[in-house]
Amino acid sequence: MAEPSKVIHVRNVGHEISEPDLLQLFQPFGVINKLVMLRAKNQALLQLQDVPAAVSAMQFYANVQPSIRGRNVYVQFSSHQELTTMEQNTQGRVDEEPNRILLVTIHHMLYPITVEVLHQVFSPHGYVEKIVTFQKSAGFQALIQFQLRQSAVVARNSLQGRNIYDGCCQLDIQFSNLEELQVNYNNERSRDFTNPSLPSEQKGRPSQPGYGDAGGMCTLQANRGSHTHMCVMNNAAAIAAAFGGGLPPGITGTNDRCTVLASNLNPDRIDEDKLFNLFSLYGNIVRIKLLRNKPDHALVQMGDGFQAELAVHFLKGATLFGKRLEVNFSKHPNITMGAETHEYLNSNLNRFNRNAAKNYRYCCSPTKMIHLSTLPQDVTEDEIISHLEEHGSIVNTKVFEMNGKKQALVMFENEEQATEALVCKHATTLADSMIRISFSQLQTI
């Protein structure tokens, strides 16, 4: 074991683990002076008030496996005896130098984030000269260049860890190591506010090249004086943006009830995973519970009230396994964990963890046509038909490539057959590839 230190090194810290989760784990042993989240490495560093407090924590967790949100984390003394900061109230990597350019990563991006949204969030803290956005494996990211370094420091201190919208779009901010951003176009993905005469690029062309790994490691630290994530903007703007400025007819966007009751199910053929495949078209699924005393009823807890409203709106009256579904808001605010409850909160099959804005735009009632993606590159129409034909009469199929990836459209005789194929075959394996299925709004192939 390393030499005792008041700094504790925590490993296996997944993205679902927040700063308050870690604080709660160690607060019983003393005051926590500093917390640094090393998101790129799934690690964290905590500095307790003194070495005896850290020793007490380490002795306790030597006998009790620490676990957060169902994930085991592993603790040891850090080689650092002290975590230092470069600026007052600025926590980050020990070697992180303040810079006027910030690298921002957006976690839990349920609504689209544009240059305009970012400018609205960051400009109150100083003059923003340039913004460039891009998509990387870490998620949606942006580079934001202030006129003054101090403005960037203030923005980072004020906004780090906060949500742009209530409950989502969390800001993960670090200083970039770039000296100057190069912006070639003024459009929804990049903007030079010092040069409004720049042209807008042709739609469909890639965004600013060369900013893929700018800034290096992403860090996330706790907000001082508060363990709650405050939102910077209200959800109304986000919901409208997700649907191109207006909501579908019949959707209010104001519902706050997250749990829905699905009834008139076919108890001989339905299960939790099939319900997940269907309801996850409209939002992330937290938990599902089949009611044993009412075998044709189930509770489905969605990620938020808006997603629950979409599910109720689009699935009410849909037919599945010979039954016409009833979908209504439940009187229960959430589903409590239990032996008969299936947990999906951390499932990587939840569709809205990435590309949420695109998924919102694709929301619709069940149709005769399903869209298949993440297919094997050498898949044939015959293989796709063989995989799906047990669920109904296939009228037409089309296999095509988009952005170098094989996809397919399959039209069934009616909506019920297409729905059955989706709930039974989404996330199944075809020639060693896990396929994804959703409804298509196209009328013909």
Question: What's the layout of helices and strands?
Answer:
Layout: E1 7-11, H1 19-26, E2 32-38, E3 43-48, H2 51-63, E4 67-68, E5 71-72, E6 74-77, E7 101-107, H3 115-122, E8 128-136, E9 139-146, H4 149-159, E10 163-165, E11 168-175, E12 190-192, E13 219-221, H5 235-242, E14 259-263, H6 272-279, E15 285-290, E16 298-302, H7 305-315, E17 319-320, E18 323-324, E19 326-329, E20 341-343, H8 356-361, E21 369-373, H9 381-388, E22 394-402, E23 405-412, H10 415-425, E24 429-430, E25 433-434, E26 436-439
Antiparallel strand pairs: 1-3, 1-6, 2-3, 2-13, 4-5, 7-9, 7-11, 8-9, 8-12, 10-11, 14-16, 14-19, 15-16, 15-20, 17-18, 21-23, 21-26, 22-23, 24-25
Helix pairs in contact: 6-10
Terminal residue distance: 64 Å
Q: Structural class of the secondary structure composition?
A: alpha+beta
From the spread of the alpha carbons, the general shape counts as globular
Beta-strand proportion: 25-35%
Largest sheet: 6 strands, antiparallel
Helical residue percent band: 10-25%
> What is the residue-averaged pLDDT?
83
Number of helices: 10
Biggest sheet strand order reads: 10-11-7-9-8-12
| Low-confidence residue ranges | 85-95, 202-230
Rg, nearest Å:
24 Å
Count every beta strand, where a strand is a DSSP E run of 2 or more residues: 26
Tell me what the structure shows.
The protein is of the alpha+beta class. Helix content is 21%, strand content 28%. A hairpin with a 2-residue loop joins strand 4 (67-68) and strand 5. It is globular, with a radius of gyration of 24 Å. The relative contact order is 0.10. Residues 85-95 and 202-230 have low confidence and may be disordered.
